[in-house]
Amino acid sequence: MTKTNSRYGKRESRTVISKDGTIVSFLSVGKGNGVIVLPGVLSMASDYAAFASALADNFAVYTLERRGRGRSGPQGDGYGIQKEIDDVLALQRETGASFLVGHSYGGLVALEVARNNSAFTKIAVYEPGVSIDGSMPVYWMQGYEKKLAENRNLDALVEFTLADAPARLAKIPAWLMKLMLRLFFVRYPDSKQMLGLLQQNLCEWREIARLDGHYIDYREISAAVLLLYGGRSDSRAVDLVIERLPAVIPSCETMVFPKLDHFGIERTAPREVAKVIGDFFSR
């Protein structure tokens, strides 16, 4: 166990062993009823420090360092979402947490965890990475994988970013997006970690594609679900999630943040999102 102090308060870095023997680390902060937080693609547990700190005013928050990141073990051979589920369940058994938060791909994992599972009583997902009728693009994968093989990591990130961008950004020329990313890394140097997570991103998107159309399975969720999204996300995938999931999940409510985008929970307004989620968990 490692203890650290930061502007977001005292955090402990701890580990748990998953079903297949993989060591998975997590960051712990706060006291109270337990909440597990699942980061999205190209993100690490530390990226949610502000969100976790805000939630830690009233809860014990455990942010999972998903496989292939930090002190956690690799994704491993035969990677699939079941391994992610096993990691979450190992952490749940370790902490006794009954609340779960997931963002993007972490939201997809959260929903999959909750199927036929009463361990979690309430779940909040911010724009979960659920593909419906091909709503999550996959055409970029072949070119992306080729660029990774050629060690052209920044070019691979450009390919992915443009494919997954809101409509207002998707038409930006690749050379300009590359320049914008370079400037972004200068302004936010910690974000350069994304370049080391590109292979993990590809594996995770393969799971998103494989599970396309499986949202009907979420009728098996007994937990109360809060479905959150940003009004500025400008995404067909998000629109379909907001339309279809509440009709399937037995207990589901939605909440929009009109001024936020896909990264509202992570970067744009983590304290604002934490307040809404904390109120939901406290009911």
TrEMBL record:
Keywords: Hydrolase, Membrane, Transmembrane, Transmembrane helix. It comes from the Bacteria. Residues 35-275 form the AB hydrolase-1 domain. GO terms for molecular function: hydrolase activity. This is Alpha/beta hydrolase. PANTHER family: HYDROLASE ALPHA/BETA FOLD FAMILY, PEROXISOMAL MEMBRANE PROTEIN LPX1. The lineage of its organism: Bacteria, Pseudomonadati, Bacteroidota, Chitinophagia, Chitinophagales. The keyword Cell division does not apply. The keyword Membrane applies. The chain crosses the membrane at residues 21-42.
